[in-house]
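Marked as duplicate of an earlier ticket. Keeping the data here for the record.
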Amino acid sequence: MGIFGFFSKDKKESLDQGLQKSSENIFSKLSKAVVGKSKVDEEVLDELEEILITSDVGVDTTIKVINRIEERVARDKYVNTEELDKILKEEISGLLEENNTQDLLDFDIPEGKKPYVIMVVGVNGVGKTTTIGKLANLFKSAGKNVILGAADTFRAAAVDQLILWGDRVGVPVISHGMNTDPASVAFDAVKQGVDTQADVVIIDTAGRLHTKVNLMNELGKIKRVMQKFIPDAPHEILLVLDGSTGQNAFIQAKEFTKVTEITSLAITKLDGTAKGGVVIGISDQFKIPVKYIGVGEKMTDLQLFNRKEFVDSLFSKK
C-alpha cells in the first residue's frame, strides 16, 4: 500500500470543505422537508426527489434512488425521518458501487503494465491540463517515474501550461510545440517511457467537440501510434469533466463516449459549486467509474475518489 493508502484526516477535511456548498444546499433543503414530520412518507419522498434533481444528480438517477428508499420504507413499514440521511448515504453508496466505482487505495499501477499509459480527454476549460499536472505530482509522490506528453497541439496555452506543470512537479514533458502532429508527440512520449522504463506516461489531447469526426480520427491515430510500442496502450482513457457545469458535464460525457471508449472519470472544480450531486448522476448514467475528484486549488486537492467518504461529506450536516 502506498503513502495514499488510507483516507487521512487532512484529506477528509479538504473533501468536507470542497463539498461544503453542495452539502449545505442539500442539507438545508432536507431539513425543511422533514420539519415537523416523524416518519418518511410520500410527501417527504417527493421533496427528496426535488432536492436530488436540483442538486444535479439527474432525473434518471434520482428516480432510482427514490425507488430504493421507497422499497426500504415499504419493507421496514416505518422509517424515522432521522434515519433518512443514513439511508440516503447507504443507497447512493450502493449505487456507486454497482457502477464499478471502487474505492482505490493508492496511486499504484496494475501489475505488468509498465509504463502505464493514460490518455486524457476533455473539452477546453474543464481543468484538463491542471488535472494532468496534479496527477503527475501524486504519482511522483507515490514513488513513480512519470513522463507527460503535450499532444494538445492546437492551443499554445495547453502546451505551455503542461511544460510549466512539468517544471513545477519535476517530471519530463515531451513537446513539439503548437500546430504539430499530436500522434507524433504521443509516439515520442511512449517511446521515451519504454526506453527509460518510466512507470507512467500521461498524454494530454485536444478537446474540440465541434468536429466530432476529426476528434475521433485524431484519438484513433494517437492510439495506433502508441500501440507500436505497447500493444494494449492506452491502458486508461480518462475523461475530465468540470463538476461546476452541472448538467453540461452530462452532455460532454455523452459526446465523448460517442467518439472514444472512456474507462475512467475525473470530476473537477467541485469546491466552487453546489452541484456536487453531478458526480453520482454521471457515474450512474454512463457506468464509468469516477476515479478522481478535484476539491480545491492545492496540488493534493485532486483526490482518489472514495465513494463512502464522498457520500458522507455530501450528505452530512456541517
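See parent ticket for discussion. Residues 59-76 form the longest helix (18 residues).
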